[in-house]
Write a structure and sequence with these properties.
By secondary structure, the chain is an alpha/beta fold. About 40% of the residues lie in helices and about 20% in strands.
Length: about 375
């Protein structure tokens, strides 16, 4: 917990530091990569650095954590920390790297706030940083220890490359060596590492859209704004070897008997499709409501898998929204105001951030508690304060 000495300092300076984080973090990354250019090779996303998303992610996490410490003494924001820890573990973040980040981040803070920062302010924000870092380090050690192997990356062979809707491809992979395999939970993701045409290695997370035994499968959209998906689509072929992480992600199907609502948009259907597949394979008798939104029917990447699984479940129903509507679909964008939500339902969300914020707000207005709304964000998580 935040010390009594630091709390009033953080309370007094949080508005200032929060307002300047957006300017501090670019300076931090410039310092970090000047000192450690190797971190851009296989760890940090170059495309996210270019568009500023990574800076927003760091800013959001630090501001959200400090705000929580001030507003909720004696507790930690467990949901936010778990999400960050899983993302870090999927990238192979190590404990010594937190010290590297600290050195360059606080040098950037001292530079930006040179006229106002005092030793007392620096000490208080150092405490905030290490409270967050120590909590994440503990969580990440537990995640690493829970894996079936002690390897960050293992080789997997591309067994199939199948078109999946307009602009999307499903990759099916099989183990390329004897590395022990951690079973993936429905809704989890893996990191995939590829080498770009200029020789730089880059990583991106993809939801597992449905595992079968020892295989892995994930579905990618080529124009997702990153550099990894185009390489997977255009360069990687059947028989090639990819470096894949162990499965991570804390947005997984919770045990129980209550109704499940799966709401997705676009390629965000991949984790919800995985959860739906697990329910169908188990012959679940839970009430399942599947809600999906697309621009048009042909773009729905996992259409066959999801419609087949809905048919396999007696208690499942599907509602579809299309911007170019067809018979049997709703027109335009998804709205829960048009849906008869089951009482006591758990809602799982994945899709673009504006979509998830909108549906989450509607779900809360409809009476679903925030604690029963679970969402997955891909790319930098700039929604950490929600």
């Amino acid at each position: 917990m935040l010390s009594d000495k630091s709390r009033p300092v953080i309370e007094a300076t949080l508005p200032l530091v929060g307002s300047r984080i957006g300017e501090i973090t670019p300076k931090f990354y410039a310092r970090l990569f000047a000192a450690h250019p190797e971190l851009l090779d296989g760890l940090f996303s170059r495309s996210n650095q270019r568009n500023g998303n990574q800076q927003q992610a760091l800013a959001g996490s630090i501001a959200a954590f400090a705000t929580h410490l001030v507003n909720n003494p004696g507790t930690l924001p467990e949901t936010v920390l778990a999400r960050i820890a899983h993302r870090h573990a999927s990238l192979g973040i190590t404990e010594p790297q937190y010290q590297v980040v600290y050195e360059h981040l606080f040098a950037a803070i001292a530079e930006d706030l040179a006229e106002v920062i005092t030793p007392e302010i620096a000490e208080a924000w150092t405490e905030v940083y290490w409270l967050m870092a120590d909590a994440l380090i503990k969580l990440e050690k537990g995640l690493y220890a829970a894996q079936a192997n002690g390897t960050m990356w293992s080789p997997w062979k591309v067994a199939a490359k199948t078109p999946a809707g307009t602009g999307s491809i499903t990759f099916t992979l099989e183990p390329a060596d004897g590395t022990p395999i951690t079973p993936a939970l429905p809704g989890q993701y893996v990191s995939v590492k590829v080498t770009l045409p200029d020789g730089l290695r880059q990583v991106r997370q993809y939801s597992l859209s449905g595992d079968a035994g020892t295989s892995r499968s994930f579905t990618t959209k080529k124009d997702d704004g990153g550099e990894v998906s185009p390489v997977l689509h255009d360069t990687v072929q059947v028989g090639d070897i990819l470096e894949i992480s162990n499965p991570y992600g804390e947005i997984t199907l919770k045990e129980g008997e209550g109704p499940v609502v799966l709401a997705s948009a676009g390629i965000g259907c991949t984790p919800t499709a995985s959860i739906l597949r697990s329910l169908a394979d188990a012959g679940s008798d839970r009430q399942v409501l599947v809600l999906h939104a697309e621009s048009d029917l042909e773009s729905w990447a996992l259409r066959s898998q999801m419609t087949d699984d809905v048919e396999r479940l007696e208690g499942a129903d599907l509602q579809l929204w299309l911007e170019e509507p067809q018979s049997g679909s709703n027109a335009g964008f998804m709205s829960l105001r048009e849906v008869d939500l089951p009482a006591d339902a758990s809602l799982y969300l994945c899709g673009p951030l504006p979509f998830m914020k909108h549906i989450r707000n509607e779900a809360i207005n409809a009476g679903i508690p925030a604690t029963k709304i679970h969402y997955e964000v891909f790319g930098p998580d700039i929604w950490l304060a929600s």
